[in-house]
């Protein structure tokens, strides 16, 4: 009778010239049959360094879901008051692989990662400025108030595009990132399609 998978089979030592008994071959056959049955029927145990896998079944193709990714933009011109740091409220979702990343109604300024890891963030803001006296700032901030990416340019009248980007590691879920804007020269009107925010898990 096979001892597998309950325990290891102990075989007596053999030497040349001994008489081979039917039980000697029978014991080997019993163990081989028990191992084959376990592998074919999912009852085999794989033991290594004290770890035990009761069964292992792999069928078909393993398909990983797409990484978290979202691109947001405005669907109407948004006015930013003079010298006021304003978090952009994103009203349009160009694409989104996970519906929990962003909401246009609840905290629309935030992108909230749904798993830990590295996230690449990029914001582009294009505005119509009437003055040129002060700097323009685009900052990507996390929920702790830290700056992930920041771009500061000299203000100029007319249309101006400012881009900021950075990478943030989330060691736990629950935090978020958002894009904020400040124009120290004049009230600014942010354009629609040219103002956007992307967050992609790397």
The Rg value, from CA coordinates, equals 32 Å
What would the principal axes of the Cα set say about the shape?
rod-shaped
SSE order: HEEEEEEEEEEEEE
User: How can the largest sheet be summarized?
Assistant: 7 strands, antiparallel
Structural class: mainly beta
Q: How much of the polypeptide forms β-strand, as a percent range? A: 35-45%
How many beta strands in the DSSP annotation?
Answer: 13
Based on the coordinates given, report the CATH architecture of the largest domain: Sandwich
Q: Please report the distance between the alpha carbons of the first and last residues.
A: 54 Å
CATH C-level name of the largest domain:
Mainly Beta
Low-confidence stretches are: none
Total domains, how many? 2
**Annotation field: number of helices:** 1
Please estimate the helix content: under 10%
Briefly note the CATH topology name of the largest domain: Jelly Rolls
Q: Quick check: average pLDDT?
A: 85
Word description of this protein:
The protein is mainly beta. It folds into 2 domains: 1-62, no CATH class; 69-201, Jelly Rolls (Sandwich). Helices cover 10% and strands 39% of the residues. The chain contains 1 helix and 13 strands, in the order αβββββββββββββ. It has one helix at 22-41; strands at residues 46-48, 51-53, 69-73, 78-80, 86-87, 92-96, 117-129, 135-142, 147-154, 158-170, 177-183, 188-190, 196-201. Strands 3, 4, 6, 7, 10, 12 and 13 form a 7-stranded antiparallel beta sheet that branches. Strands 5-11-8-9 form a 4-stranded antiparallel beta sheet, with no helix packed on it. The model has no long low-confidence stretch (mean pLDDT 85).
């Amino acid at each position: 009778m096979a001892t597998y998978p309950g325990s290891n089979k102990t075989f007596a030592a053999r030497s040349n010239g001994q008489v081979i008994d039917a039980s000697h071959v029978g014991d080997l056959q019993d163990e081989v049959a028990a191992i084959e049955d376990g592998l074919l029927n999912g009852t085999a145990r794989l033991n290594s360094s004290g770890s035990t896998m009761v069964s292992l079944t792999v069928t078909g193709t393993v398909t990983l879901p797409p990484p978290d990714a979202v691109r947001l933009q405005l669907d109407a011109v948004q006015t930013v008051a003079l010298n006021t740091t304003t978090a952009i409220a994103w009203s349009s979702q160009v694409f989104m692989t996970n519906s929990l990343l962003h909401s246009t109604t609840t905290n629309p300024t935030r992108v909230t990662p749904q798993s830990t890891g590295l996230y690449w963030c990029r914001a582009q803001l294009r505005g119509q400025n009437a003055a040129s006296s002060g700097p323009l700032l685009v900052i990507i901030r996390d929920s702790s108030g830290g700056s992930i990416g920041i771009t500061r340019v000299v203000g100029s009248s007319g249309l101006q595009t400012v881009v900021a980007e950075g990478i943030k590691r989330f060691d736990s879920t629950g935090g978020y990132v958002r894009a904020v804007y400040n124009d120290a020269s004049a009230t600014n009107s942010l354009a629609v399609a040219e103002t956007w925010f992307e967050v992609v898990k790397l």
